Fold these 2 entries.
Entry 1:
Amino acid sequence: MLFSFFKKCLALLPTLIGASLVAFALIRLVPGDPVTNLLGERGGDPTVVAEMQARLGLDRPLPEQYFKFVKNALVGDMGVSTVSKRPVSEEFWDRFPATLELSLMALLWATVLGVPLGMIAAMKRNSFFDYSVMGTALVGYSMPIFWWGLMVVIFFSVNLGWFPVSGRIGIEHDIPIRSGFMLIDVWSMGEGASVAFWSALKHLVLPAFVLGTIPLAVMARMTRSSLLETLHEDFVRTAKAKGVSATGVLIHHALRNALVPIVTVFGLLLGSLLTGAILTETIFSWPGVGRWLVKSVEARDYPVIQGGVLYIAFMIVIVNLLIDLIYMWVDPRLRKVS
Amino acid sequence: MFRRSLVILTSAAVIFVSLSAFAAKTFVYCSEGSPSTFNPQLATDGTSFNASAQPVYNRLIEFKTGSTEIEPGLAEKWTISKDGLAFTFKLRKGVKFHASEFFKPTRDFNADDVLFTFNRQREAKHPFHKVGGGSYEYFQGMEMGKIIKDIKKTDDHTVIFTLSRQEAPFLANLAMDFASILSAEYGDQMLKAGTPDKMDTFPIGTGPFIFKSYQKDTLIRFVANADYWNQKPKIDNLVISITPDASVRYQKLKAGECHLIAEPSPADVDSMKANSKIQLVEKEGVNVGYLALNTQRKPFDNPKVRQAIMHALNRESYIQAIYMGRATLAKNPIPPSIWSYNNKTVDYTYDVEKAKELLKAAGYPNGFETELWTLPVARPYNPAGKKMGEIMQADLLKVGIKVKLVTYDWPTYLEKSKKGEHQMIQMGWTGDNGDPDNFLNVLLGCGAVQAGSNLARWCYKPFNDLIQQAKQITDQKKRSELYMKAQTVFKAEAPWATLAYARVYRALSDKVTGYQIHPFGTESFEKLDLK
């Protein structure tokens, strides 16, 4: 098992090299560079522009720039943002916990609600409940997130006043950022920590709800179809014939076997949420990596794009590795194969 | 029992009222983005200036709140030598720098701070020059490195700037955000501690608010500076809540989570006007939106063709369709809020027949085919480039000019246009310092062709001579005459179709008092109060 784990780790290296190469090359293929962007409508004297480009190392041949980037990345140095002038690694770690916190909360409610809904729909196949859940899931899946987010804000925040419109915590709470996870950092407050926690939680509800909409629909549909497939297997029929209760069959026999595709989807969803929460981050002013990366592309902030993509690729690779480990736990056959 | 309840209720009411009276006033400004830095020397964007230069710092000279006129700041007064090359500043005494957990100032503001501020930007050998990347785009863009020959202090409160050439807009340049005064003592301490970067991330200034903390991409907190040399702010805390989406900012304003919002969406303005709890304030902006014609390319090298285009475009219709009425039709390359605006220039009327005649006279009786680049981003001077492009396309087709609309993403648009790859291009400009030179020379001077900001690529000697001459005179009346002549030349040669002077507007809660909108679009928090 340990050997298999290391083998998997080694296999991830080409993925990371590929991601770094693509991120490096793609952004340089499009016209415009950080200097042009910084100078804006004003422009600049060609000698000043050339001097600024040289300072950023942009006058060097591309292979040289790439190898320098890789060499530095190997020791954890991703360079310095051309816009903020701060190290990319610091900029990334300032934002990643916020993205992770939001993604996990979104997936939590998507799973807690989606899996049981899918299970019930599978058990009551072709019933009114099944049609309603699957119909709603289809609507949820096709929801334009930007519109949905704004509607949710207008209804729950502006009209009902139940939740704040955006941000991570009420402005009255000045929380020193330590871990970057607001739900954890509030506890350093001592007195008033529970009030701050409540405020942070309230700020998290709507973004997690909006971000989790599509994953919820996917989880429900996936659980249903995966369970339906398993419910027709011979061993389920045998279990039923042996007199195991319907719930027993569902939980102990069918669900466990249906879990592999569900876990796969969970991993894929987490991977996509870590990068794809841009719209939710924009609506709820959530300080995550998605918005940061999009801004860096607009600004042609090469070091941030290269470093950010590499970090994200690394995170997705780690998520995939964890999912592989969970497979082995869920399905003993996979352990034997490896 | 009743009496006891009454006593309790009355005491509770008294406590509540007194608490409210002493409750800290927190003002929340919902901004459109995150600052890229807290050092205004390193920034190029208004968002960063609003979070650093405006609340935290002062400059030697300041713009009067809500105006393009200058007034004394950290320099109480100044004199200019007869040859216009030496500027002597007498510095204000008793001005205190902020204190923070990293820094406790031991002295007041003095000449060393002025030297530190400018030498960091102009001297490559300065120990702080390379901190934060070593790029001082604004300082370089305004050619301050070339203009300033030397800076000397004669005593602790007197500084002399010697210029290498006469530069009339120099004083106005010193009021710009990049010229914010930093603390030399803070710099020294951070350098000794091995953490020079802190200077740019934990700003220390002399301004009305003290920086407290920054939650990345979310909140920036400031507290009022009790020792402020000027009038002490009336609000106790200033919070900048970063809210990138304009619709969400509006929702936050409605929900009472913001007192002032940046860049309201034009689509929301009517609904804001109808809301009694929201104030909408407007002001003439210091900007111009234009369509530049690349005069280095055929057929735009022919003035007749350019004039034909001026007559063919129904520019007045754009004011309603594109700016929703919140702009005035532009006649000159500088807006009326800038001195020396020439009211007497004669504008081109919308006249299709005249346009056709001019095209015929230029040798294009059947028109021609060309490209028009539409602005890919919403800017104050042009909120909807593509839509405007479509209307222009229809206008030009009426005189036989077949236009293909082209656009790129913003950095690509900038790069390609600076290389002169365009034929007709939408662009615009928001002024930096209220000086006519900042428009006429930066956008239409011969030097700007190479720098890339003269998108008409129009180097016309009679015009260029006038603006270069005006730059070297300090007498504003004489300068004004020259700039007025330059505008007449511009109008006759028509390198641009001047489109609009957009108004700047802000939405704020009805609880806010003392707010003045600044024509440059930056925010001043100094005089704000809450009812």
Note: Residues 187 and 193 of chain A are 5 Å apart (CA to CA).
Entry 2:
Amino acid sequence: MTIASIDDWISAARQIIDYTKTVSKTVSGGNISSYFEVAGAPGAGTLAGSSTTGVVPVDTDAGFPKITNFASGAIGYLSRFSAFGSVSGRLILFDRLWVGGTYAFNSGTTVVAANGDATPLNRVPDNDWSLVEAYFELVTATTGTQTLSLVYTDQDGVSRTSPTVSASASSTVGRLYRVPLFAGGRGIQKVESVVVTGGTAGTWNVILVRRLAEVRIAGGNYGDTYDMFKVGMPRVYDTSALFCASQADSTTGGIIDAKIEIASK
Amino acid sequence: MAITTLAGLRSARKHRLVHLQNTPTGATQGLQCGFKEALASPDQNGVGPALAVLDGMVPVSNSPGYLNLPVPAGSNKLYLSRVEYTSQLTTQHRFEMFDCLFVSGEHSTNGTVTNTYTSPPTSWQSRVPNYDNLEIWIEVCIGTAGVAGPDLTGSTAIVVDYKDADGVTQATPSFLIPNLDAGMAYQLPLQAGTKGVSELLGYNSSGGTSATAKINVRLMNPLAGQSYPALPQATSGAMPMDFLQTGLVEVHPDAALFFYAASSTSARSYEILLELAEG
């Protein structure tokens, strides 16, 4: 079954999922930062990845909100997203598809060969690899400017090396650096290796995510509720590892509060 | 029978309930601490009714201080199909509506306080489909709301004992709350790595020095929320939510509707109109 009409949505099984982080954190103003490790409901997760060859997180892992299993044969959709924040910025909802780490700084060295085949992405609708975004996620503080790049398999199965990302020495823990794609590329199937150069300290995760929704927080103590038409009803799985990232306008990340409605039929 | 189609919603009986808060509520501060109201009596003034239930109680819709909901006919259910929220507050803020499932209080904040609930009631469990997304809140409930200056003093650290969604006993991480005025509220974080709340077990605090300030503990099931714009839109205007924005969420006939808002430090009056579709 699918949800193909408003009637289908009305008659669908719907669940509201809470994603609240009850304390603020210092962030790199104007840049995206994970809140995965911050206290709240669900309780804090562990930011550091558990395997340099990568794992596929699921909803029952620590730090992710639990999703009630869909009925047999039912398909799930994000049908409503309420996002609020105590400071202005943007709140983004992701499905965390894959995480590898942690990878230490190591000047001029290929840190690890991460075999994406061992943990293939399994929550990408229609294997549309253009839906997959890659980020470097800072786990422990760095010293010195670091340069990061990713070797990955693109949408056509070709090995590519991303343009480099320069990470500021003052990056805050949880900071997410978007990995740019090889010129002309449009997707990522898997991670092959991670290269970090420069600096003398610091560790990183690489995460692959699928963006589900985003809401602008136009001011402090503000936000919005997007209905099914505004969120576009992207597909959600009952194993999806949902988490929110914040792109606060200033260095105070603030408190975030999201309610996520998933309709399944 | 349930509402399963747009035509069914259109033809459903609509109950309209209005809550008017015509006495300005107390000062507020920050996202997680705002004025709060049981959706009923217009004279709560951001404080709420006094409690004497240290072991907790399960409020229902006809409990004093809550909005008395209509009783649906036969096997019908109630769905939140529309909300109109009007506020005289001239700055942007947000509001959120809950079913308050459990409340205990008023707990002392003076010194080291341990209050393990004796046989805490669990009848609220029939009002939720599961325990995965329930929230624990605390609120300051004694003091003179709206008067400058904190009613809570010292460095009050709150811990609430609970069982998570899997039935495992947990404790919230110690949470140091600011010296809030009465009516202020905070959502507590859950223990790292855990999800949900299936039972509340007790209240603990330490470090507080106020002989008068007290704390209530609430277990909340979130229903709907929205933001309210700043001037000029806010002046005696309304912020409607249609059924797509409320999610047509089912409201249990016993639900003890409760309302939190987060804003700046201004006081305000407000009005909430709820439409409940029955079908």
Note: The mean pLDDT of chain A is 91.
